[in-house]
Amino acid sequence: MSVRVENIGNYQFAANGSSTNSNNMGMREMQARAFAKRDSQYLLIKAPPACGKSRALMFLALDKLVHQGIKKVIVAVPQMAIGSSFKDTDLISHGFFANWYVNPKYNLCGPDSDLSKSEKVLQFLDDPKESCLLCAHPTLIYFYDKLQDKSKLDKALIAIDEFHHVSADAGNRLGTVIRSLMHDTAAHIIAMTGSYFRGDSVPVLEAKDEEQFDKVTYTYYEQLNGYKYLKSLGINYAFYTGRWTDAVAEVLDTHKKTILHIPSVNSSESTKDKYNEVGNVFDIIGDVEFRDQKTGIYTLKTKDGRLLKVADLVTDDEWQGITLQSLREVTKRDDLDIIIALGMAKEGFDWPWCEVALTVGYRRSLTEVVQIIGRATRDCEGKSHAQFINLIRKPDALQDDVADSVNSLLKAITLSLLMEQVLVLNIHFRAASDPADKDDENAPTIVIDDSELNLSDTGKEILKEGIFDLTADVLNSEDIKNVLACEPNSLNNERVKEIIKCVLTEKFKDELLPQDIEAISQAIVIELNKKDIFNPKPSQNTTRGDGEKGAENIVDAPAPFVTEEGGTNFVDSNQHRFMNLDDLDINLIMQTNPFMGAYEFISKVVDAPTLKRIQDIAVSSRAHVTEEEALILWPSIKTFAARHNREPDVHSSDDYERRLGEVLAYIRNRKAQRLAAEQEA
Predict the structure, then answer these.
(1) What InterPro entries does the record point to (predicted)?
(2) Sign of the C-alpha dihedral, residues 493, 498, 499, 505?
(3) Cβ(139)–Cβ(118) under 8 Å?
(4) Please, what's the b/e burial string for 317-341 (b: 16 or more CB within 10 A of its CB; e: otherwise)?
(5) Stretch(es) of the chain classified as CATH 3.40.50.300
(6) Residue 476: phi, psi to the nearest 5?
(7) What is the pLDDT of residues 490-538, one digit of tens each?
């Protein structure tokens, strides 16, 4: 067994306290920014964990109740455990005009059945004395299905926490509720998320619906830069051979407050026995002394004599609920040292003293990565550094390929922390003779011209539903691998197209007509090249097959590449799932050294100027600014900065300010490019 650690990110922050200081109404920086948009009917808040989104909602909801004619507030959270974020809160003593209160009768994040909860929501709407209700996402869905008279919500505010659980897909029931609220009622909607993208193949909202939302964006960098205590964030990748239960001993520092997420039982890293894995981790930490009968938390004695308190959230027995509840009541640093979890302790989980988020197994979902990082980035006295470590099986790939993937992954995570979209969209295909589904009319769609092909019904169905999986089959073909190994940029050559047709013919045999094979082959070639098709350079005039311009804010489709143990999944996934990263011309790896029979990557320091540089490149690459426009708007940028004592915000809801911010990013990027060229000359 060997381990190598890839330290691919080290973020440093000013720690000036601005994001945690409160104004005269008790609002922190992000909350005040959101409150400035309190009159919006539809408001989307994109902000990282621990910056106070829950309390921001309280401020907004109370203002709508007191000043805007709203009569009912319904707050929906993805898990009942997260409901504690909206507990009764004293706001008046900090300068606000009202306190947040939810009658226990209408706090539905409890043990009742969903049926009784949906009935209680209906009762709540008719209760003249109460204004606020708290429930889980499923309760909102069930209740909304039962509500016959949707006009009862015309004077209601519906708030959705962790909004990335919504999607524009017709099968997403929460997304259906949001669309109906917007189209069939006069309800107000507040959506909150720390990661406005999903881990699947569909956008969170349709473009026409998202345009109606005012937006408040507060990036991870703004939040962390304004902390009092936390000064840096590190991102490490540790590659191992053998079993992870042996390798984890080399990266688990029992002197640090740590959340350890073990791998999914369905992953290649898992031993398939999660209980034995927990036992192995216990053995690494020390010997069990006793288990607290009130909290369910274990006390272990380390080899050097220290006593550590360890919570097991993996073992699903009668103790699990007791342990989870006790974690919500942790009030002191010494109450807990290590948490071992599988699916818990991610979004909405709050343990401010956590210093290290140690995750075993490669996570395909960038949303999940950002959520896990958020567990360690709470500001807390005595914590100056936070660390995310991902322990991954060593891929069977060339060193240069792994280096490229590590660099791409760091860039993708960095952009995501800056609330930039970096994930590849999923393309819909259909034959021209096949009518477009109404539910898919806003999806990025490519129409295959079959006017001379006369496709079979089976061929049309595969075009609509099967291209993604077939592309995976093609990429796993040995013939394709051999061609691409010799000619990496040969996705469009005739040899590749012939191989695709052979794969299809062998797979479907007599099920498809030759013309079906031809049309499906076209679609697969497009799927293979979708990064270039849907992320065109400014000079291109690429449109969808139906004549509309391709949508931009689309999220990633799961990578269709090999997942066998010891395969190249880490490399293949990261090479193909991120968009715009080629435009981000930054190498964040300083040097590569031999390490324990393999190699390690030593990263450059990613500090405040580097983060700003990355954001400037990302913004300028998607904004399509010309040099002529930059010259015209430069005086306006200087005037704006002098008048407002700040730079124009690239995330502003004001179109003019946002454009000034984009042009400023372009100017900075061009200046950096010029300086780099002069240094090389």
Answers:
(1) P-loop_NTPase (IPR027417)
(2) positive
(3) yes
(4) eebbebbbebbeebeeeebbbbbbb
(5) 3-11+227-421+576-603, 29-223
(6) -90, 0
(7) 555 677 778 888 888 887 777 788 888 888 888 887 766 654 433 333 3
